[in-house]
Write a structure and sequence with these properties.
Layout lengths: L51 H16 L4 E3 L9 E4 L11 E20 L9 E14 L5 E7 H14 L11 H10 L12
The structure holds nickel (II) ion (NI).
The site of nickel (II) ion has 6 residues, from helix 2.
Length: 200
Amino acid sequence: MASSFARLARSAERSGRLQVSKEPVDNPPYDIHKLGDVVLRTPARRIGKVDEAVRDLARDMLVSMYAARGIGLAAPQIGVHQQLLVIDLEIEDPASPPLVLVNPEITAVGGSICTYEEGCLSIPGVYLDVVRPSVVDIAYRDEMGRPKRLKADGLMARCIQHEMDHLNGVLFVDRVSDADKLNSGLKEQGFDPADVRSIA
Ligand code: NI
């Protein structure tokens, strides 16, 4: 997910097994695929064993995400079809550890149905309203393979749902109901509205 309010972060060299510097680098390990690229539409597979290779991948995803000033990134966005997400809502706080989600599942939704403007590193420059539940309960494994549960609301709930959609080959523009704003927003940024697979 893209942040429309990102400022430059200072370097991070603090605790956290997967914490990497949040300083944006010029040559991130991965390029982020953009709307129209078929890899974004391929469902991701569950991860069997959470090993050092998975942690290395998560680190590289974080570096790539920070380079793009994003707050969330799903493995399919870098062309890796594994159920792995990284999220960091505090990209300006070098001491705040990121969240790594392996094989996340939504176990309950609640709260209200709310509208919020989303963006995506795979659709840069496009910010549009999406309707989603305001609260989600999820089950997942952390970067050490430990089973975890989390109840999320606010921006975290929004970001988790957005990133989990990526694991199913779904993009936020598929959920935009205002067709006029969708088409003009995409065209302004050079994207083809024909690449949307509407489920709104
Ligand atoms: Ni996204």
